[in-house]
Write a structure and sequence with these properties.
The chain has a single domain, classed as Amino acid/polyamine transporter I (Up-down Bundle). It has 20 helices and two strands.
Amino acid sequence: MSINNSELKKSFGLKMAVIIVMSAIIGSGVFKKVAPMAEMLHTPWLVVAAWLLAGIIVLFGVFCIAELGAMFPDSGGPFIWLEKVYGKLISFLYGWSCFTVIQTAAISSIAFVFAGALNTFTTLPRLPEHYESFTFLGLYPLDNIGAKIISCLLIIALTLVNIKGTKKGGNLSLIFTFLIVISLSSVIIGAFGSGAGSVSTFGILSKDYPKEGFTLFAFISAMVLAMRAAFWGYEGWLGLGFIGEEIKNPQKNLPRALFIGISIIILLYLLVNSAYLYVMPIDEMLTTIHQNENNIAAVLVMDKILGSGGAYVISAMILVSTFGCTNATILVSSRIYYAMAQKRLFFRKAARTHSQNQTPKYALIYQCVWACLLVFSGSFELLTDLVIIAAFIFNGLIVFGVIRLRKTMKETPRPYKTPLYPFVPVVFIFFCVVLSGISFYESPAKSLMGLLLIVSGLPFYFYWRKKLQHQ
């Protein structure tokens, strides 16, 4: 099969760009993260408030990256933007971090939730306890083995689809985004339209709520950490920037697609998380979820409304939504490594596109292999926390780039400008600093692991730079 270095096709108009924004975001967090958020805040309305605040922060970030994406609509998105702002080293570390943890761990985590939903229909196999308790570097690779195998099979299958053609991957996203919205709407209508819930449920505090209330620092810490969990539900908001080269009329369509897609998602998330807490008191939800790590909040809610049949219905919908999100994340993320390889800062084969399909075949393959290895590295919660910790370090740098380029590239045309500048980028950057600081204080081991994965790229960077200089 011949391969060459041809450019990627411009395959996506405004409608498909909106679909990719939504399908790259909605997949797992909205179904699972309400439980850990409830454990931190102990109050239903505070959980919903955390989703709203996280959505506003993401919207601020979207306002900023839309300016960068319209200025530089290139494949790889933030990798290219960071190079223009800070130079090759920071840009490379971002791309490397996407490969080692940010994007590949996102793929692994979403696929892991797909496997969890499948567990509703058929009990996934597990190894005997003495095998599951095997540990390597603090990780448990053989724990929950059935879910991990299913996750890997999904990643491999969708990688093959995207190698066959970008449009095939986009069409999959179109179908599954429609079904994602149907699944969330079913939860919302089912919860508020049945007699299973009550407004009074929002007033039921967890038994673990502090007797004298939160101290100011404890409240801020709990809210920021709950928002960190909510950000997993919004993870993927940068994804459209990765495929700027493949969007038709990107100067107009990229900002529009981001705003439309994110706004719809914020509304859906607020409604569906309110629906969960309308039906199930916090302690009841947490007790049931702790009984089995594969349990999912949306399934429990529909089970309470409709009985066991409801659980099967919503589990089928979650299978569809996580399938679509895994597909979209695989599609957009591979473009980062393609862009890196084009600049000879990644494995050279990743720069090649298929001669007929014009897809970044080897970038997709490398991504697939590492994502599968990450599936065996840890649990859903570990992977998602690592993604958010690493991502927000770079998200802050990306958004600061808007401020810096306003000074260093004043004359460069800006088809779109960030509204309420500089308030919007400053607020976003401030939150990134606070989130990173509290994460390091609350989870030093996870934070250190995230940092190690980021700097692990330094030997590769200097090797590839030295090799490039001698050519």
